Amino acid sequence: QVQLVESGGGVVQPGRSLRLSCAASGFTFSSYGMHWVRQAPDKGLEWVAVISFDGSYTHYADSVKGRFTISRDNSKTTLYLQMNSLGTEDTAVYYCTKDRYAGNSFSHYWGPGTLVTVSS
Amino acid sequence: DIQMTQSPSTLSASIGDRVTITCRASQSISSWLAWYQQKPGKAPKLLIYKASSLESGVPSRFSGSGSGTEFTLTISSLQPDDFATYYCQQYSDYLYTFGQGTKLEIK
Fold first, then answer.
1. Min Cα–Cα distance to chain B from A42, Å
2. Contact (Cβ atoms closer than 8 angstroms) between residue A72 and residue A55
3. Cis link prior to B8 (omega < 30° from 0)?
4. B13-66: per-residue pLDDT in tens?
5. Is the CB of A14 inside 8 Å of chain B's CB atoms?
6. Angle at A111 between CA A109 and CA A112, to 5 degrees
7. Average pLDDT value for residue range A94-100
8. pLDDT (tens digit per residue) in A30-60
9. Is the pLDDT reported for residue B87 higher than 80?
10. Of the four listed, B2, B19, B20, B48, which is most buried by Cβ atoms within 10 Å?
11. Does A67 touch chain B (CB under 8 A)?
């Protein structure tokens, strides 16, 4: 069965950096695109970034472009999100999701999420 | 950028009711639309993809329709487990935008 487990969340000061990880299992990780989606407290879902199955392309929401970097290590079946220059608006639960296909479709499976709180 | 607008934002209904949630795209997205259900404190769950394809394991009382810019999610007979928040998402372009959500409440 597909399992996605995020880690790396926590409390961080504004302007600092944080790296999230997502350990994947139960499927052929190197064959699927992956996404990060976030949800601010009591708000809706916001798509953050996508990476193709082989890492050859990435795309970002305008709100994080230039600050966040999505990457993957297929040998470790792990997805990452490097978050720099964090602001209070980045406070959210961050979900790792598996694309249905190579990285240009919807989120088929979701992890339970990890909470990132940006606060001084 | 493609904007997704859901209506209503909140919907009150009773067990057994038939309910419909609408999602409108700011430009045509063909049938590249998914619907998700989210319960408090939990990750979203996929219900429908490609506008009308039911995800495996999802009860048949859920259905989706539409194409182009207007889409609907229908629950034919509400069950207690269906009270949740529902989101649409377009995957026509690489910004994968979500609607703002529709909270389905018990009347």
1. 10
2. yes
3. yes
4. 999 999 999 999 999 999 999 999 999 999 999 999 999 999 999 999 999 999
5. no
6. 135
7. 97
8. 999 999 999 999 999 999 999 999 999 999 9
9. yes
10. B48
11. no
Question: Is A100 near chain B, with CB under 8 Å?
Answer: yes
CB B104 within 8 A of CB B44: no
With beta carbons under 8 A apart, name residues in chain A contacting B91: 104-106
Two tokens, residue B89? 């998402």
* B66 close contact with A: CB closer than 8 A: no
Q: What is the pLDDT of residue B84?
A: 98
What pLDDT does residue A103 have? 76
- Provide the sign of the torsion angle of the four alpha carbons B60, B19, B83, B37, taken in this order: positive
What is the token pair recorded at B46? Answer: 């996929």
Binary contact (A45, B98; C-beta < 8 A): yes
- What is the nearest CA distance from B77 to chain A, expressed in angstroms? 25
Question: Of A116, A119, A108, which is closest to residue A31 (Cα–Cα)?
Answer: A108
Stretch B76-98: mean pLDDT: 95
Residue type, B95: L
Distance CA A27, CA A38 (A): 23
Task: Give the CA angle between residues A7, A2, B29 to the nearest 5°.
Answer: 90
